Please model this.
Amino acid sequence: MEVERLKTLVGSMDSGGPVDALQAVAQLHREVGRAEASLVRRARTAGLSWEAIAQALGVSKQAVHKKYGRC
Model:
């Protein structure tokens, strides 16, 4: 499950030194990007407009369409 993986990565940020924490942050960044892309695809499949998706993400319609328009 994605949520559990994210929780594990967040928890690992406190358990090691700075290098381990930075590696966890980098992995979190990748995981969140994958989760966002998946959710945008689901939203489009469900019929949501680019405007609605952009509003949910807190970005412009142009930004979200540029990033995910080919998905």
Q: What stands out?
A: The chain has one domain: 2-68. The first helix runs from residue 2 to 12.
